Amino acid sequence: MPKDKTATHIKLTECMRKEFFEKGYEKASLNHIARMAGITPAGVYRHFESKEEMFISIVQPAADALENCCREFVSGMTDELDSKHRFENYRPYDMGWFKAIIDIIYDYYDEFILLISGSVGTVYENFADSLVKMEENSTNSMLAHLDESGIEHTEVTQEQVHIISSAYIKAIFQIICRKLPREEAVDQFAFIYRFFGEAWKAYINIGSLF
């Protein structure tokens, strides 16, 4: 659907955001949104085909920005980890990726709160699972490159990869939901990132490479 720049559409979008941010998707009322916007429920359908489409229009830019950033990181990591020499110089925390993630989250802060706690009943209700899957892919990529480079390490099962990936994403969500100032969140993200990173290196016994 083309982006509508009319005054009515802008007002409707403002009312949608207010309703969804306050109530989440399931409890949000299309009729209430229409009343706030000063139009009829039928008038809403001239702008959006459904309540879910309204919700998606709000959160999709945030979800896409984060997922694209994570995919770029995984792709970049694959390029970096093509030899033992590059393992020795690999410092994920020092890469621009880490700051980019924080910037995206805080640029779309309300949208991420909505994705985390108010998206049940939409195509985004499994948003956390999609991030866990990307984290699993990142970890599996690292393990595969260790094997390809002939670097000995402790074997890790896919169940273990899933458990730790899930815990990592949940820890990040905890920081987001606490609504910390950006500066404090940076410190907490750094703590979580380094905690899980050091734990992985210690467990699979590759600490000497980093």
Q: Brief overview, please?
A:
With 210 residues, the chain is mainly alpha-helical. 73% of the residues lie in helices and 0% in strands. The longest helix is centred in the first third of the chain and has 30 residues, at 51-80.
Describe the protein's architecture and organization.
The protein starts with 6 loop residues before the first helix and ends in a 6-residue tail after the last helix. 73% of the residues lie in helices and 0% in strands. The chain has 10 helices and no strands. It has 210 residues and is mainly alpha-helical.
Q: What's the shape? A: elongated
Structural class: mainly alpha
Helix count from the secondary structure assignment = 10
Number of strands: 0
Could you give the topology of this structure?
Layout: H1 7-27, H2 30-37, H3 41-44, H4 51-80, H5 84-88, H6 96-107, H7 109-117, H8 127-148, H9 158-177, H10 182-204
Descriptive key words:
210 residues; mainly alpha; 0% strand
